[in-house]
Amino acid sequence: MNQSDQSDQLDAAGHADTLGAGGSEDIKAEENPGSNTEKNPDHWVTGGEPATGAQRSYLQTLAEEASETVPADISKADASKKIDELQAKTGRGR
Known about the structure:
By secondary structure, the chain is mainly α. The chain has a domain at 49-94. It contains 3 helices and no strands. The protein has helices at 3-8, 53-66, 76-90. It is globular. The termini are far apart.
């Protein structure tokens, strides 16, 4: 790639539009990469796995307060969504 081709790939702030080794944008090069703590549970790689012990425990507490039941075989992603739903219903955690 010649120098003129390289300059064509700079954005308005002068940063190169590069991809990481995995084919995704190079987050490490961004000034404010954001947070991965707000990733949509539907996009979690492990979202289909069984809920963690911490999720199940917290869900049980919320479900009891909300007079609801939660399936024992709930997935991580569904547990996360249910926690959000029950937090809104009970006023906890927000």
